[in-house]
Amino acid sequence: MVKLLILLRNISSYSSLTAITSEAVAKISLFSLTEQKQSDYFVGKWSFSPQKVKKQTELPLYQLHLFNFASIIPYRKQTMRYTIFFIATLLLVCCNRTAPTLSIEGYNMAVTAVETEKAPELLRLHIENGRKAVDSIKAPVIGTVSSALTMRIDERRNSYTTTLMNFAADALLHEAQLQSNEKIDLAITNKGGLRSELEKGEITFGDIYNIFPFENTLVVMTLNGSQILQLFNEVVKKRGEAVSGAKIVFSAPENGISYAKIDGKDVESQKEYRIATSDYLSQGNDGLTTLSQGYDRKEFSVTIRDLMIKHISDLHKQGKCVEASTDGRIIQSTCQ
Q1: If I label 228, which of 104, 113, 135, 151 is the partner at 20 to 30 A Cα–Cα?
Q2: pTM greater than 0.90
Q3: Rounded to 5 degrees, what angle do the CA atoms 267, 271, 273 make?
Q4: Where are the CATH 3.90.780.10 domain residues in the chain?
């Protein structure tokens, strides 16, 4: 008798083949064939599936591939009995559509301060290590602020800007000029992108990440004066945005602007102005659709957040604090 090892390879875990367990494979992996004369052998490679048996086939999904029967397969009557028995057993197993179901259990666990106390020790340690890693990045001090920068509107002055909005726009204007190596006339960013405030005292990386959580990058573009006035009308309809380099006066948001100046001069309809903004706003998002008309664009990979960090760090190196005020750059006129 010759022991013949049949190699079972590439058993799919899908459909009915999930019914073939490791025990089942082990039981059918060995069987005996009676020795025959050399002339009674043939060489072949076979694959079996629940639907059909074919010679020299490729392996599709849901097939059990059997390689080479040790390259030599006896083909006489006695041998065929073993072969037919093996094939019949295999087809019965493969055609079983009710594969045994393993028990799978699980539950959702909220990752909160309370729930993590109940979490497995490894999970708790993983969360703590992750928190420590993040805290180590957020903790370094990059500057100081002399008074809190907030998003509170100064209603006494009918101003539609805040200290934080003014700081963000002024810093953007300054840093955009350094990045582009050209004069920037106007900087604008959206107040909706400012997601926190700065308390008086030290400023950390974490503080800036909280205020600027998005990956918006710097874009410099050109608009003519007529487009600038159209942009300012969109700004007042939104009751203000973070703007630097301009003064905008309006009587009511629905009426549009009364007048506007850039660099202390009236906006000229045919003059071209260079503008710094974010890639998000440059696409005309957040109600500022005119910005999508900008031309002669320069796009930078640096994020607005990184520009803010650089600006604050540079001030700190010079021994200066971050300062900002509501200076009436966007105001509602009380004159009728």
Answers
A1: 151
A2: no
A3: 80
A4: 138-332
